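Q: what sequence does this backbone want?
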């Protein structure tokens, strides 16, 4: 059963409502809220642009019909991925992750990439648990204080979720 559906512009306010608490909690070391509060309007505007951007697929993650997360892909890149705080530690992130990878495979992507904040320990552990490996490439976010991002990659050539030929997923 699918946990993803294509995002529409009307979903964006709900997506931002899900995204903000996770970003504030999960990225507290990266974006201290007293100096760099969650840029709600900039994030809303970015989602609205990306929903209509050719070549970018934006998804909502659903749990019992309600928006419980988000994802976006462009070319070979997982651009955005997040799950509502109340669903952290459940299998929802793993299910959504595997389904996003299936969309990348359907596009013919053999190797996917993503960027994650160096200071996002929770996110880095999740991706590493799912087989992503750091490439050594580093860049900077456009959001102040412009923290460092690490690039990760993952082979999608296997037949199971996350490229695992046995079809195992640990989400």
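A:
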């Amino acid at each position: 059963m699918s946990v993803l559906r294509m995002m529409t512009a009307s979903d964006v306010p709900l997506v931002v409502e899900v995204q903000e608490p996770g970003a504030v909690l999960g990225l507290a070391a990266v974006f201290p809220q007293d100096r760099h509060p969650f840029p709600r309007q900039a994030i809303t505007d970015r989602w609205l642009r990306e929903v209509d951007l050719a070549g970018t697929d934006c998804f909502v993650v659903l749990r019992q019909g309600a928006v419980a997360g988000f994802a976006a892909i462009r070319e070979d890149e997982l651009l955005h991925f997040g799950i509502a705080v109340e669903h952290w530690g459940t299998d929802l992130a793993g299910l959504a992750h595997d389904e996003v990878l299936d969309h990348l495979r359907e596009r013919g992507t053999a190797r996917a990439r993503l960027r994650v904040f160096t200071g996002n320990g929770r996110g880095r552990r999740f991706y590493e648990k799912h087989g992503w490996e750091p490439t050594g490439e580093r860049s900077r976010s456009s959001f102040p204080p412009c923290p460092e991002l690490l690039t990760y990659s993952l082979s999608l050539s296997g037949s199971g979720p996350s490229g695992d030929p046995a079809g195992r997923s640990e989400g």
